[in-house]
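Open question from group meeting: does this chain pack into something compact, or does most of it stay loose? Before anyone orders reagents, we agreed to write out a predicted structure and look at it together. Recording both the input and the output here so the notebook holds the full record.
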Amino acid sequence: MVKKVLLALAGLIVVLVIVGFFLPSKIQVTRSIFINAPSGYVFEEVNNLERHPSWSYWNNLYKDDMTVNYGNIKAGAGAVSEWDGKKSGKGKMTITESIPDKSVKMDLDFMEQGTAQSWYTFEPEGQGTNVTTGFEADMGMNPFMRLMGALLMKPEMNKAFDYNLNHLKEIAEAKKDTAQ
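Structure tokens returned:
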């Protein structure tokens, strides 16, 4: 009986490895939303790292576990935030490019889990803004990392982006309402 269980387990591992090799090494996730507010209202929330806790899925998910520290620069290119927690792990986010009211690009360093890039673009449309956010990570040749990316990371990123965009929408549209 034990031999059959071990053979079945070995067979499952072989199948997972084979499937993992056929999955793409890079995962990319993008989401968009229309926000009924000027692009500057959304841009200032994304561009200033100290504002992220008010709309970030990850800050909300780990609010009781995660410690966040900011560098001397809080907004724009060169701004840095670092986090650490038992559940959240350790990491660093750096804004690498900031074009006012147009886009923000960030490098994410998840330490032993690797690196990724994230971005936001802001495209004016009428009285509002189309906001798109994206994430890209290279899972390399490791079939288990590819499986984790496809089965765990990609769905969680979709959930995080939906949360982030909906909260950015609430914040930016409330700013617009109070400015009128």
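Observations to bring back to the group:
The helical segments are 2-22, 39-47, 57-61, 143-179.
The chain has four helices and seven strands.
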